[in-house]
Write a structure and sequence with these properties.
single chain, alpha/beta, six-stranded parallel sheet, globular, binds FE(4)-NI(1)-S(5) CLUSTER with Oxygen
Length: 670
């Protein structure tokens, strides 16, 4: 068996990989190894299967076929494959958005029998004003219409900086309705339609923008209206959050419509007494992947792990029931669950898994279904064999729940809320810039190792890191989401800011659809003024250090289309085309202001990001960095210089006492 260290940087994962071998269970790493060597044509993006004459494969060494049967060359084939991935990623996010809009519509209509209701009237009021409608029902209708909008730009696009919108209009990629962009992109990749690879990449950007500034942004807004706007909150992460003496239910997938209702059901007195009658001390709900981020942000529920933890969690023998909805759910789960008593339940009409039980989840009957799932979990607990349970002891404290709505309060205080303190810290050289580190795990890279290496490297260089998705979970498990991480990892300038403001150096902003929150933060920095009039002028960047899913490619592309330098690791299937790489890594910058850096080397990604931040600082004529190699070299700013930073006791700096462990934290007083 390969060494567990080569498969994961997480000690809990390594422990469970040894357990997998004992149990004779195959995991994603074993299956990935079984496939090696991976198809070289596929890895380069040079295999075309869009018609049934093929599949056609282009010889990368130039000795055999250089075009497919229809005449498509390497560049068109690579661009077409990439465009199809982007369409699928955009479809996944945006269909999630549509789903929550439909739940919102059901909750908003008069005489509603929906189990859901508006829980955030302030956010609703702000959206009503922005969208120019009078009622929640009108808003839901208007949002739903964005998916099928045939002409004219999406309404949320208005939030983007004017210069960015001007660029999109000039390029002809201002997105229309989400469905329309995805359908048109797929049409253009059909055999014999768009044959210009660069035009195809521009069309892919248009569909990606429809996701980032459309489907995903709408999803985030609606979820905040229905389930509440997150505030800083503390919790724990890693497999050690599973409880030996409680019924453990893992929620996995993406849409909080399911997970929020399960959390509510698990807290009902009759469900708790059922669990006690079954011999359990309580009901413990924990999450995997993005739905974990959703219920963490709003409810403080613990996170069991990120993408590569989904099978490992089942191997503990402590999970009584795993309930899934859509996206990033491995079809292998029922086989792995069969090692123990664990039940796997699917709930979405769009996502069935052979071997799992399907309990259809309907928003109108959500309470009953959620309770039924909890009852099944309690029953399964009765079949648990305590002698076979092995829960890794690893679990880590964290603070999550930052958003574009609440960050101004944490940064500026209650009476002077705003991004000015952050902008001053950047302008004065205390903070080098802001980098979004997001995305997945992949079996191609030792789990979490790239996320941790990159984030630690950036922190040491006084870079404030914002996160979503499985990357945020990777850093949570490693303790980087604690305020104390500033002392342990941040450069002196960033330490000073974290101490003065009382936030961790790594800010958790939610799930993958919540990358829209990061776009909103960047837009707010532009609006506040002083460090650039456009996203492409800001000292900001993005990275997907362990990208796996098509959604990650879509996110990367809308970041680049929005003017953001984006490091993407490992290299996606573009290496087979010089034209595609040249456009996405260089030429696109003249059009959108952003560009990709594709690399397999995380140190090269870090160097590229830091060089990019410094070049933007130079172009804006910002002050030199205040500290070089930890030594103060000059500068001034809004924060008191501190040579040593005293760690906040617990989360005192966030106004967080013990009683607030699972409650929302208040922004700091002025
Ligand atoms: O949407 S980061 S592995 S869970 S795709 Fe999937 Fe990637 Fe995780 Fe969330 Ni995002």
């Amino acid at each position: 068996m390969p060494k567990p260290e080569s498969r994961s940087a997480d000690p809990a994962a390594r422990e469970m990989l040894i357990r997998a071998a004992e149990l004779g269970a195959k995991t994603v790493w074993d299956r990935h190894d079984d496939l090696k060597p991976l198809c070289g044509f596929g890895e380069l993006g040079l295999c075309c299967d869009v018609c049934y004459m093929g599949p056609c494969r282009i010889d990368p060494f130039g000795e055999r076929a250089q075009v497919g049967a229809c005449g498509a060359d390497a560049h068109l084939i690579v661009a077409r494959n990439l465009a199809r991935a982007v369409a699928c990623g955009a479809a996944a996010h945006s269909d999630h958005g549509r789903e929550v809009v439909e739940v919102f519509r059901g909750a908003a209509e008069s005489g509603s029998t929906s189990a859901y209701a508006v829980s955030n009237p302030e956010r609703l009021a702000a959206l009503l004003a922005e969208w120019g409608v009078a009622t929640a029902s009108d808003l839901a209708d208007r949002m739903a219409s964005q998916f099928g909008l045939q002409n004219g730009p999406l309404i949320p696009l208005e939030r983007a900086p004017r210069e960015q919108r001007r660029r999109w209009e000039k390029m002809g990629i201002s997105p229309r309705g989400i469905d329309r962009e995805i359908v048109e992109l797929l049409h253009r990749t059909h055999h014999g339609v768009e044959s210009d690879p660069v035009e195809l990449l521009r069309a892919a950007m248009r569909a990606a923008l429809a996701d980032g500034w459309g489907g995903s942004m709408i999803a985030t807004d609606v979820q905040d209206v229905l389930f509440g706007g997150p505030m800083a909150i503390r919790s724990r992460a890693n497999l050690g959050v599973l409880e030996e003496k409680q019924v453990n239910i893992l929620v996995h997938g993406h849409e909080p419509v399911l997970s929020e209702m399960l959390v509510a059901a698990s807290r009902q007195p009759d469900m708790l007494s059922l669990a006690r009658q079954g011999g359990a001390e309580g009901i413990n709900i924990a999450g995997i992947c993005c739905t974990a981020n959703e219920i963490l942000m709003r409810q403080g529920m613990p996170i069991a792990g990120n993408y590569l933890h989904q099978e490992l969690a089942l191997l503990t023998g402590a999970v009584d029931l795993m309930v899934v909805d859509v996206q990033c759910v491995m079809p292998s789960l029922p086989q792995v669950a069969a090692c123990h008593h664990t039940k796997v339940v699917t709930t979405s009409s769009k996502a069935h898994v052979p071997g799992a039980e399907h309990i259809g989840f309907d928003a109108h009957d959500a309470r009953r279904t959620a309770r039924e799932i909890v009852v099944r979990a309690v029953e399964a607990f009765g079949r648990r064999d305590p002698a076979r349970v092995q829960i890794p002891r690893h679990r880590m404290d964290l603070v999550a729940g930052f958003t574009n709505e609440n960050l101004p309060h944490y940064l500026g205080g209650r009476f002077r809320a705003g991004y000015r303190p952050l902008i001053d810290a950047i302008a004065s050289g205390r903070i080098r810039g802001v980098v979004a580190v997001v995305g997945c795990n992949t079996a191609r890279i030792s789990q979490d190792s790239h996320h941790l290496a990159l984030v630690r490297r950036l922190l040491a260089q006084d870079v404030l890191v914002v996160q979503t998705g499985c990357s945020a979970i990777a850093c949570a498990k490693a303790g980087l989401l604690r305020p104390e991480a500033a002392v342990e990892y941040a450069g002196p300038g960033l330490q000073e800011v974290c101490a003065a403001v009382g936030v961790p150096p790594v800010l958790h902003l939610g799930s993958c659809v919540d990358n829209s929150r990061i776009l909103a933060v960047c837009t707010a920095l532009v609006a506040e003024g002083g460090i650039g009039g456009d996203l492409s002028e800001l000292p900001i960047a993005a990275a997907a250090p362990e990208a796996m899913s098509e959604k990650a490619m879509t996110i990367g592309l809308y970041a680049v289309a929005s003017g953001v330098f984006t490091a993407f690791t490992p290299v996606p299937r573009v290496a087979g085309s010089r034209v595609v790489r040249q456009y996405l890594e260089q030429d696109v910058e003249r059009e959108t202001g952003g560009r990709f850096l594709f690399t397999n080397d995380i140190e090269e990604a870090a160097r590229g990001i830091l060089a990019h931040l410094d070049s933007k600082r130079k172009a804006l004529n910002l002050a030199p960095m205040m500290y070089q190699d930890g030594v103060r070299s000059g500068g001034s700013g809004a924060f008191r210089a501190m040579s040593t930073y005293v760690a906040p006791t617990g989360l005192a700096s966030l106004g967080c006492g013990k009683a607030q462990e699972r409650s929302q934290l208040r922004p700091p007083e002025e």
